[in-house]
């Protein structure tokens, strides 16, 4: 590569903020001053990619160390003393209580699923009276019924000519909502049939 071309490329890279001087110097020295532009560019890209990877590792390490520091400050974990043969951290009694609280919160989180909507010949009516402490589950149920195409007759009464997906019934059982729900089917002859 000619001196003028190399200078032009360096100025272009620096002007566009693409390259750091350190990367540029490393690329020139390792590729050789007379190397092709593409060879130097590949070297620069490799150096920049490596730097980005190292920076990301540093950020993750810093984030983890900050979390450990926070847990120590809050009294959730403590370092083992030197007398103890185990090294590292252990969970304090306060940390154990906090862990149970977090696990309960995670268990209460409801996974949104995309149930498959299927038309039904009969009208299905869903009635529910989910207690206030379970309001997140109640809101989840309303959202899912709305998504499936059921019509809200009252806040806790929904109807539609839509099959209730098997997966939804399994989720209702999993979230322990079945005791609070009744599903009634109105057949073609007009008779009521309790589904759940």
Overview of this structure, please?
The model has no long low-confidence stretch (mean pLDDT 77). The strands form 2 sheets. Strands 4-5-3-6-7 form a 5-stranded antiparallel sheet, covered by helices on one side. It has a two-stranded antiparallel ribbon with strand order 1-2. It has 196 residues and is of the alpha+beta class. The protein is flat. The N and C termini lie far apart (79 Å). It has 3 domains: 54 residues, no CATH class; 34 residues, no CATH class; 76 residues, 2-Layer Sandwich (Alpha-Beta Plaits), CATH 3.30.70.240. The protein has 6 helices and 7 strands, in the order αααββαβαββαββ.
Please provide a brief summary of the model.
By secondary structure, this protein is an alpha+beta fold. The protein is 52% helix and 18% strand.
Topology:
Elements: H1 3-15, H2 21-31, H3 37-74, E1 77-79, E2 89-91, H4 93-108, E3 119-128, H5 135-148, E4 151-154, E5 157-162, H6 166-174, E6 181-186, E7 192-194
Antiparallel strand pairs: 1-2, 3-5, 3-6, 4-5, 6-7
CATH architecture classification name of the largest domain: 2-Layer Sandwich
Strand content: 15-25%
Q: What is the number of beta strands?
A: 7
Please estimate the helix content.
40-55%
Helix/strand-derived category reads alpha+beta
Low-confidence stretches: none
The number of domains is: 3
């Amino acid at each position: 590569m000619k001196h003028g071309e190399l200078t032009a490329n360096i100025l272009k890279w620096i002007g566009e903020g693409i390259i750091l001087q350190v990367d540029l110097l490393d690329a020139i020295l390792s590729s050789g001053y007379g190397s092709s532009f593409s060879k130097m560019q590949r070297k620069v890209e490799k150096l920049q990619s490596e730097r980005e990877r190292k920076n990301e590792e540093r950020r993750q390490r810093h984030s983890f160390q900050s979390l450990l520091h926070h847990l120590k400050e809050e009294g959730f974990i403590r370092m083992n003393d030197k007398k103890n043969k185990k090294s590292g951290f252990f969970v304090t009694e306060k940390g154990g209580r906090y862990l149970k609280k977090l696990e309960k919160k995670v268990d209460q989180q409801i996974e949104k699923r995309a149930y498959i909507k299927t038309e039904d010949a009969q009208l299905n009516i869903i009635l529910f009276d989910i207690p206030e402490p379970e309001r997140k589950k109640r809101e989840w149920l309303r959202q899912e019924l709305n998504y499936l195409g059921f019509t809200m007759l009252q806040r806790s009464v929904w109807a539609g000519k839509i099959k209730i997906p098997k997966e939804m019934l399994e989720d209702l059982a999993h979230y322990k909502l079945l005791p609070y729900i009744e599903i009634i089917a109105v057949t073609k002859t007009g008779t009521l049939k309790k589904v759940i």
